[in-house]
Amino acid sequence: MPQLARRLFALPPELEGAARNWLELGERAPRAARFASSVVLLRDSPTGLETWMGYRPGSSPLGVVAFPGGSLEPTDEDALGWLGPSPQHWAETLGTADVGLARRHVVGAIRELFEETGVLLAGPDLSSTVEATSTPEWMKAREAVAAQDKSFTDVLAKRGLSLRTDLLKPLVNWLSPDFAHRRFNTRYFAATLPVNQQPSLLASKGVWGRWVCVSKLMADRETTALGDEIGQENTRGLPLGQLLVPGSEIILEKMAAAQGCIAYLSYKRKPHMYQPRLVEEDGALMLEVEAARTVSGEPQRER
Prior knowledge:
- About 30% of the residues lie in helices and about 25% in strands.
- By secondary structure, the protein is of the alpha+beta class.
């Protein structure tokens, strides 16, 4: 297992006010963190591993540019068809004694992925997944679930589908910094793109989203290319580090070092919660994380 190293990350501009207030007013009890799930969607391509990323308006605890994800909802507790590892198994895998919470994280991950991209990890049985989820009918279902006009459970039940929880792989657990006004306790999962499905932006909310080649993204991380492409007021002229939260940046680093989907998904990971701390370096506020450094091309066991 590699030793954890002290890593410093840029403080996103939208968090600077909250960070300075935290320092000036003295440390106090942080705001409660909402539970959230996020899914790293993967596919292999001739140029290397690709992942789907999207722009998130406002100051999302997941970052300005992030993997699909969001807060867990009360409806994630609803009864629904379930295929694959049991909630008990997921609780053990995620390192929590709260089986109900583990189940909600899994349901929330699959629901958020569906809302934001249309990719649906569900099927009638363990040998197949639903196909062709890019139709206008499916977009209506996504919009209804996103607006909470219809429950995810109803969408699945109407079509005789059950969650394929075997298609999710657990990654890491990140907690937002103490000083942030909006805080998430986020479980990251990974999934490969199912057969005959393609991600697309939610019609009513999508601004920018696409497949990105991870190695190219990392090679260009010091440039403003991605922020300029997205073209929003809070992305133009900014390097990658100011668009991502540290959790996303570290996940991308590890993906860039992996030799394809199978290699990345087969890494051995132990449950561990990471949380960035606010530090001052040479007069500048930064986020400090203890995390394993990635050596290009070498599979590593993540703590």
